[in-house]
Specification:
The longest helix is centred in the first third of the chain and has 14 residues. The protein has three helices and five strands; from the N terminus they run βαβαββαβ. The protein has a five-stranded parallel β-sheet, sandwiched between helices. The protein starts with a strand and ends with a strand. 31% of the residues lie in helices and 21% in strands. α1 packs parallel to α2. The protein is globular, with a radius of gyration of 13 Å. It has one domain: 3-Layer(aba) Sandwich (Hypothetical Protein Ychn, Chain: A), CATH 3.40.1260. The chain is an alpha/beta fold and 116 residues long.
Length: 116
């Protein structure tokens, strides 16, 4: 059984490079196919799902690597009811809103939890 890694991203992609870097790293780790990678976006990080990311810091990482993460066979998880979800427009990526209890279960089931 492969180890699993959960990337929890909470940074604001409008003001921080951390969310873009998290997506780049998640795509790289998942591409090796030696670990099952999941991504969870919380608070302003949900904006990373926006159709238009050209005004975000390191926007190229979102447009280049997020589609790779989307191909891992699981949705991108997002905070249920996040205030900024209404601002993402038509996201090109499949995502699933989950509550904190589901996030806790994902974290408990993961061998590695990384927070950005």
């Amino acid at each position: 059984m492969k180890p699993s890694a959960l990337f929890i991203v909470t940074g604001d992609p409008r003001t921080s490079a951390k969310p873009a870097e998290a997506i780049r790293i998640a795509a790289g780790v998942g591409t090796w196919k030696k670990a099952d990678v999941s991504v969870y976006l919380r608070s302003p990080a949900v904006l990373a799902l926006s159709e238009y990311v050209d005004e975000f810091i390191d926007e190229d990482n979102f447009s280049r690597y997020f589609p790779i993460v989307g191909e891992f066979g699981r949705p991108i998880y997002v905070q249920r009811g996040a205030k900024l979800l209404g601002e993402i427009g038509d996201s090109p990526l499949k995502f699933e809103e989950i509550d904190d209890a589901r996030l806790a279960q994902l974290a408990a089931d993961s061998q590695y939890v990384l927070r950005f």
